[in-house]
Amino acid sequence: MEDLFTLVYAELRRIAERQLRGERFGHTLCTTALVHEAWFELSKLNRIQWQSRAHFLALASQAMRRVLIDYAVARKTQKRGGGKPMQSIDDDALAVVQEHAEEFVLLDEALQRLAAINERHARIVECRFYGGMSVDETAEALEISPATVKRDWTLARAWLNKELGA
To answer: How far apart are CA 86 and CA 60, in angstroms?
Structure first.
């Protein structure tokens, strides 16, 4: 696992940077913290047979999504007076998703509903939106054609926009 981490670290940072790019200035979760949290989650998956680099990056994107959602939920709970103070996930990270916590949670809930309707569409959203993967990388990770990715990406975005009222 350590050798794999060394090989894919730069790519994981690129994915994390993309995911954090849309956040407000001063977002409290730094790129390094997000990469390390996602890696920690991936290291728990000791029975996974990595099929390819794209397969690994798709799972890493899912892990980063879960980390961001967990932080958004925790922030939402804290805003409502729900308990213990938030803690950073490492010394460099000062905190959590703040300004967009509600939106992260709503997007995650909508993505879960989409997965119940069409799992492949949800996986494409995870790869493209959360993972910053190209159409070809997504196609390779999900073992489908690039044309299918393009078509399903368009449908999934339209469905999410309708669902989120955007």
So the answer is: 24
Q: What is the b/e burial string over 118-143, where b = at least 16 CB atoms within 10 angstroms of the residue's CB? A: eeebbbbbbbbbbbbbebebbbbbbe
Instruction: Please give the C-alpha separations between residue 12 and each of 21, 84, 137, 159, in angstroms, as whole numbers.
Output: 14, 30, 14, 28
* pTM for this model (two decimals): 0.52
Query: One-letter amino acid identity for 123?
Result: R
HSE toward the beta carbon, residue 15, CA cutoff 13 A: 32
Answer for the pair 45, 66: CB distance below 8 angstroms, yes or no: no
Token pair for 114? 């989409």
Give the count of domains, the chain.
1
Tokens of 85: 């103070």
Q: Are 27 and 100 in contact (CB under 8 A)?
A: no
Domain holding 78, by residue range, is 2-164
With H, G, I as helix, E, B as strand and everything else as coil, classify residue 56: helix
Average pLDDT of each block of 10 consecutive residues along the chain (166 residues)? 71 78 60 78 73 79 80 63 44 41 78 92 87 86 92 93 83
